[in-house]
Structure formats: C-alpha cells, structure tokens
C-alpha cells in the first residue's frame, strides 16, 4: 500500500509541477477553447488570475515530489482540483478524464494524510 501511495503522490506532484511550469514557460501546445470555455479562460488570463493558480500548482507539485508538507500541498490543490473538475464537467468535457484521474490521485494521497486534517472535524474549539 505504501508503494501505491508513493506512486499516487509522485504522479500528482508531477502532473501539477508540469502544468504549473507550463503556465509560465508554455512548452505544451494549447489553443483557446471555443464557446463559453474560451470566454472563461480568456477572462482568467486577462485578469492574471491564472498566474496565481499556476504558482500554487507549482508550489504544491514540488512539495508533493519532495514529500514535504504534503497536507499543505493537498490543501492548496483541493480548490484547484474542484475548479478543474467543474470547468471540464460544465464547459469542456474533453479534459474530464484527466481531471477525474487527478481527483482519484488526490483522494489516495489524502487518505494517507487524513490524520493531519483531524482537527477540521472538531465541532467546537477550546475556549
């Protein structure tokens, strides 16, 4: 099981390192999607919102690859993955399979690190 978790962590880190770097270096060819998806991505690009997203992907990917601060990396990636899945589910179905693979990888790594998130399930804080 530890091998599976290590592979999932490595693949998740590699995917987000690659796409985070691609946001700055543009080494993977991509064209603007058509329709609503294109308008949405165009607005994100023009507003420089994607710079922050790519930076967060890059940081989280490196943290996962070096196996340091994994709960932090998972926390940074969770909202990004939710947005990626929703984008592909609602606007560009062609990328949905990779988004679902990334989601499964995140869940596998999260289940291994779930003890770090135990405090989130406390109904009250100590006064």
Task: Provide a concise account of the structure shown.
The protein contains 5 helices and no strands. It has 127 residues and is an all-alpha fold.
What does this protein structure show overall?
The chain is mainly alpha-helical. The protein is 72% helix and 0% strand. The chain has 5 helices and no strands. The chain has helices spanning 2-25, 35-46, 49-65, 70-90, 96-113. The longest helix is centred in the first third of the chain and has 24 residues, at 2-25. It is globular, with a radius of gyration of 16 Å.
Keywords, separated by commas or semicolons:
127 residues, 72% helix, 0% strand, mainly alpha
Question: Could you give the topology of this structure?
Answer:
Layout: H1 2-25, H2 35-46, H3 49-65, H4 70-90, H5 96-113
Helix pairs in contact: 1-3, 1-5, 3-4, 4-5
Regions with pLDDT < 50 over 5+ consecutive residues? none
Helix percent reads over 70%
**Strand residue percentage:** under 5%
Count helical runs.
5
Describe the sheet with the most strands. none
Shape: globular
Which class of secondary structure composition applies to the elements?
mainly alpha
* Radius of gyration computed on alpha carbons: 16 Å
Q: Count the beta strands.
A: 0
Overall mean pLDDT: 95
Provide the succession of SSEs: HHHHH
C-alpha end-to-end distance: 39 Å
């Amino acid at each position: 099981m530890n091998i599976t978790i290590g592979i999932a962590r490595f693949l998740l880190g590699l995917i987000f390192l690659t796409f985070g770097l691609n946001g700055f270096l543009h080494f993977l060819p991509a064209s603007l999607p058509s329709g609503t998806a294109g308008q949405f991505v165009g607005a994100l690009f023009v507003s420089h919102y994607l710079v922050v997203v790519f930076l967060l992907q890059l940081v989280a990917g490196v943290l996962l690859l070096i196996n340091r601060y994994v709960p932090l990396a998972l926390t940074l990636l969770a909202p990004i993955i939710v947005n990626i899945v929703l984008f592909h589910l609602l606007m560009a179905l062609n990328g949905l399979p990779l988004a679902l693979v990334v989601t499964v990888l995140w869940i596998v790594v999260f289940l291994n690190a779930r003890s770090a998130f135990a405090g989130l399930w406390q109904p009250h804080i100590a006064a």
